[in-house]
C-alpha cells in the first residue's frame, strides 16, 4: 500500500481539525498545548536558520554581485507589494465588504499601535547587541548583522585568508535543516491540534458576521496569486501548471500554520529540490523576503482600510486611496512573521488615515483565518521572487524544475 504523502497528510489533518472544532467546540481546547508545542519546536531554530542562511548566501557572493542582486530583489519585492495593496483597494471598492456589517462589542480592544517615531524605526534596524536581537527574535536586526557578517566573510575569502568559517556555517545550516525536517514529520498532528481549538473557540457566529470580508480577502488573494504566478511563469519561461505543483507543499504548510517562520525550512528545501533554485539565491532571497516582502499583509491592510471606511460610512477620495496603498506597502517592512502580527500593523496604519483603532477588534476574531491568506501570499511571493532572480542569474536548474 502506497504511503500517503506529507502534503496529503496535512490536508487531511486540516479537514479533520475543522470538523473536530465544529463538532466538539470548546471541548477540544486541551489540544492547543500540542499545537503550541509544535509551533515552538519549529520556531526555536528560525533565528539561527535565518542567520546561517543569509551569512552563507552573502559570504559566497562577490561584493559587486551582492549589490546587483540586492537591487533586483528590492525592486521585485516593492513591485509585488504595491500590486497586492492595489488589488486589495480595488476589491474593497467593488465588493464593499464593510457595508452592512453589524457587530456589537467592538469598542474594546487591547491592540495598540506602534508609538515609535521614524527616527526610532530607522535606528532600530541596527542592533545594539546581536545576542539581545536574537533573544527577542528581531528579524530585521538579525538580518542586518548577518548581511555584514556575510560581507566580511566574502571579503576575507577574496583576500585569500582563512575561509573555514564559511564552511562551518554551511555545515551548521545543514544540521539545522535536518533537525527541522525531523520535527516536520509531526506536522499533521501539529496542524490538527492548532486548527481544532481555533474553530472550537471562535464558533460560527463571528464567521458568519464577517464572512463577506473573508470572502473578499480570499478572492483578492487568489486573483493576486494568479496574476503573480502568470508573471513569474512568463518571465522565467516555465510551465504555470508545474510551478503551482512544485509550490503546493509549502503553500499548504503556510496556509494551515499561518506562519512564514514555521514554513521557512520547507520553503528553502522545496526551492532547491522542487524548483531548482540554487542555494546561493534561495538562502539570500527567502530570509530577506520574510521581513521585507509581505504581500499578504499589504493586501490585508489595504482591504481592511477600505472595509473600515465603509463601516463608518467615510468617503475616500483618490488621494486617500493612494495614501492607503502607500501606507499598506511601507507598513510591511520588517513586519512580524508569526501569527497575530497583522493586527499590530493594522493598528499602526489606521490612525494615519484618521480611522479609529478600536474597531480593529472587529477583525480580531477572524485573525487566524485572514492570517491563512496573508501567509500564503507572503510565502508564495517570496518564493517566486527567488525563482525570478535565479532565472536572471542563470542559477535556475530547469531539469529539477521539470522533473
From TrEMBL:
<feature type="transmembrane region" description="Helical">
    <location>
        <begin position="324"/>
        <end position="347"/>
    </location>
</feature>
<dbReference type="Pfam" id="PF00375">
    <property type="entry name" value="SDF"/>
</dbReference>
<feature type="transmembrane region" description="Helical">
    <location>
        <begin position="139"/>
        <end position="156"/>
    </location>
</feature>
<dbReference type="GO" id="GO:0015293">
    <property type="term" value="F:symporter activity"/>
</dbReference>
<feature type="transmembrane region" description="Helical">
    <location>
        <begin position="73"/>
        <end position="95"/>
    </location>
</feature>
<keyword id="KW-0813">Transport</keyword>
<keyword id="KW-1133">Transmembrane helix</keyword>
<keyword id="KW-0812">Transmembrane</keyword>
<protein>
    <submittedName>
        <fullName>Sodium:dicarboxylate symporter</fullName>
    </submittedName>
</protein>
<keyword id="KW-0472">Membrane</keyword>
<feature type="transmembrane region" description="Helical">
    <location>
        <begin position="186"/>
        <end position="207"/>
    </location>
</feature>
<keyword id="KW-1003">Cell membrane</keyword>
<dbReference type="GO" id="GO:0005886">
    <property type="term" value="C:plasma membrane"/>
</dbReference>
<feature type="transmembrane region" description="Helical">
    <location>
        <begin position="41"/>
        <end position="61"/>
    </location>
</feature>
<dbReference type="InterPro" id="IPR001991">
    <property type="entry name" value="Na-dicarboxylate_symporter"/>
</dbReference>
<feature type="transmembrane region" description="Helical">
    <location>
        <begin position="213"/>
        <end position="236"/>
    </location>
</feature>
<dbReference type="InterPro" id="IPR036458">
    <property type="entry name" value="Na:dicarbo_symporter_sf"/>
</dbReference>
<feature type="transmembrane region" description="Helical">
    <location>
        <begin position="288"/>
        <end position="312"/>
    </location>
</feature>
